[in-house]
Design brief:
By secondary structure, the chain is mainly alpha-helical. Helices cover 61% and strands 2% of the residues. It has a two-stranded antiparallel ribbon with strand order 1-2.
């Protein structure tokens, strides 16, 4: 099993369900990239051996299964497309290859949700993946993830980001 660095120490954001699914998605996409396993193999491994199980004294939260499976499959299948969307937000002389594998996994999962999950508010996607970036990294990477996702959301969900409708409610309540 290949897990993202520090994965066992990461505590998912409050609540279960989609927040736990997002952490599992990042770990699964990281594993897919590093191991070359298929999305189906990694999903099966996560659901059979990690989700809701105790490993090395750490209990893995059970993710929202449908959200986890959908996001991992979609992000893995459309990785080139999502990478191109992210690359368009990067400063000149930066590339996806220059980013670390965990950051790539975070951005692929978040881009997948922004592009393929219109039922999830864009600001929730941004908030949750920035929080995950904070769990894995210090200041620089979370700020980078925030900027990239904000730029992507403004391109992929321009009307939603322009109307500001979600500003009145706390992110966790959505």
């Amino acid at each position: 099993m290949t897990a993202a660095p520090g994965a066992a120490e990461v505590t998912p954001p409050r609540g279960q369900g989609r927040s736990s699914a997002r952490l599992a998605c990042v770990q699964a996409l990281y594993q897919i990239e590093l191991s070359g396993q298929s999305a189906d193999e990694v999903i099966e491994e996560f659901l059979s051996h990690r989700a809701g199980h105790e490993i090395d004294g750490e209990r893995y939260a059970a993710p929202h299964r449908r959200h986890f499976e959908r996001t991992v499959r979609e992000a893995a299948a459309r990785a080139d497309e999502f990478d191109a969307l992210v690359a368009a937000t990067l400063a000149e002389r930066w590339s996806m290859e220059r980013l670390g594998a965990v950051v790539r996994a975070l951005l692929r999962a978040a881009t997948c949700e922004l592009a393929a999950c219109p039922d999830v508010p864009a600001r929730v996607v941004i908030d949750e993946y920035v929080e995950l970036a904070r769990a894995f990294f210090s200041e620089r990477e979370p700020a980078f993830v925030n900027g990239a996702l904000d730029s992507l959301a403004r391109r992929l969900r321009a009307a939603e980001m322009a109307d500001g409708a979600d500003h009145d409610r706390p992110a966790r309540a959505r």
